[in-house]
Amino acid sequence: MTSKALLVTLKQVDSALREKRALEAALADGPPSPHIARLRHTARNTQSLLIFMDAVMASSCERVDLRQLMRAQPARRLAPSAVGRLAACLASAIAHLHARRITHRDVKPENIVHGADGTPVLVDFGCARLGLEDGAPPPPGDAPCASLVGTVALLAPEMIARRGHGP
């Protein structure tokens, strides 16, 4: 639940709407991916925007992202077998999104959380983009393709150069 006034103050209205649209589109056309946060419902009232999603928790009260998991490992590294599994799960999630013309644009360790069974789940679709394929125009309200969004230290070179980007 987020205050509408806070979204306006922080200039995050577009981000919240983009996240909602991306999560809805991720559920379209077939079964959902187990590696993508699942939207259940959205609602709003005069003061708040509510986005109901499945919680991804490592335990009953704890959310663990990839950065935290790496810090807890010897030498702060995952075992090669864990890296391979993680890469396969992320590739599956990203392929699922791209098949639905969604580009996440902020894949980073903090946006990969692990469930109690160890399943990695991609979260935080506030930078996501819909319709970036075959030169299709973006939906109304989305920033231009050359926009600079995401975590600066992890941006793709074409985004930093503002040459435009897609899946």
What does this protein structure show overall?
This protein is α+β, with helices and mostly antiparallel strands. Helix content is 30%, strand content 16%. The protein is built from five helices and eight strands. A hairpin with a 5-residue loop joins strand 6 (112-114) and strand 7.
List keywords for this structure.
167 residues, alpha+beta, single chain, 3-stranded antiparallel β-sheet
Class from secondary-structure proportions: alpha+beta
Query: Count of DSSP helices?
Result: 5
Q: Report how far the terminal alpha carbons are from each other.
A: 30 Å
Largest sheet report = 3 strands, antiparallel
Helix content: 25-40%
Average pLDDT works out at: 84
The tally of strands reads 8
Within the largest sheet, what's the order of strands? 1-3-2
N to C succession of SSEs: EHHEEEHHEEEEH
